[in-house]
Amino acid sequence: AKKSMDEKICFYEANMDEASRARRAMARDIWTALERGEFFLNYQIQRAVSCDEITGYEVLLRWQHPVQGLIPPAVFIPVAEECGAIGAIGDWVLEHACREAAQWNLQPRIAVNLSALQLSNAGLVEKVRSVLAATGLPPQRLELEVTETAIIADRERALYLLQQLKAMGVTIAMDDFGSGYSSLETLRSFPFDKIKLDRSFISELETSQQAKAFVRAILALGHSLNVAVLAEGVETEAQRAILEQEGCQEGQGYLFGRPALLSALGELAQAVPPH
Ligand code: C2E
Ligand code: CA
Ligand code: CA
Ligand code: CA
C-alpha cells in the first residue's frame, strides 16, 4: 500500500509540474500574442426580452493560438491576470472595441469587461477618456462590466474609478450577479446602472422554484433602485417566456444570438459595416 501511495504522489507531482509548465508556456505566449495579432473580438447581442429591440453588444475576447487553436477566455484570462499581461490586453480590447463600435455605428452601446487589475490601476480613467476621444465613440455608448471579484482587490480605488467613469457618461454593469461573492453591500455602495443576473439562475428557471424566487426578488430590487436587470445565458424560449412574465426587460444568450464577429452578425446586428 505504501508503494502505491508513493507512486500516486509521484504521479500527482509530475502532473503538477506539467500543469505549471503549461501555465508558464501560456504566459510567455500571451505576451507575444498581442504583437502577432492573435487576439480578436466577438460580439454578442443583448436585447429586450419581449421584442427584438437591441439594447447592446457584449464584447468577448478570443485568442487564436498558432498551435493550440482557439483558447477560451476562461482559460487564458486568469493566466494573463497572473502574469500581468491583462493590463496591455485590456487596453487592446478597449481600443479595438471602441474603434469597431464607432466604425460600425453600433447602437445603443457596447459592453466591455474589465479585469481586477484594470480596476486597481489609477490610469484607467485617463485610458478610457483617451480611447473615447481617439475613436470618437460617445461615452454613452460604452458600458463597462465589472464583477464583484474584480473590485475585491482594491474596493476603495475601484469605487473611486467607477464614480469618475460614470461622471464621464460611461455606464457601469455589475456582471455575474448572484454568483460567487456578489453582495448587497456592493450593490448599495457602487454606482451601477445595470445588474447582470448570473446564468446559473436562468438555467434553473424552469426547474427550480428557488431560482425563480431569486430572479423575482432581484428584479424587484432592480426596479426599486432604478437599476436595469439583464438575464444572462438565456437559451430556451421557455426561459425567455418566464423572464417576460416576471417583468425582466433585457436578456442575452444563445436564444438571441451566439457571440460572433461583427461581420458575421449580419442583419441581426442592425450594424452598418465601414466602407
Ligand atoms: P462573462 O463576462 O460572464 O461572459 C459571458 C459568457 O457566457 C461568454 O463566455 C459567452 O460566450 C457565454 N454565453 C453567452 N450566452 C450564453 C448561453 O446562452 N449559454 C451559455 N452556456 N453561455 C453563454 P466566453 O466568451 O467564453 O467568456 C468567458 C468569460 O471570460 C467572460 O464571462 C468574462 O468573464 C471573460 N472575458 C471575456 N472577454 C473578456 C475581456 O475582454 N476582458 C476580460 N477581463 N474578461 C473577459
Ligand atoms: Ca461580462
Ligand atoms: Ca456574466
Ligand atoms: Ca461569468
UniProtKB/TrEMBL annotation:
Every EAL domain range: 23-273
Question: Out of the domains of life, which is the source?
Answer: Bacteria
Protein name (record) = Diguanylate cyclase (GGDEF)-like protein/PAS domain S-box-containing protein
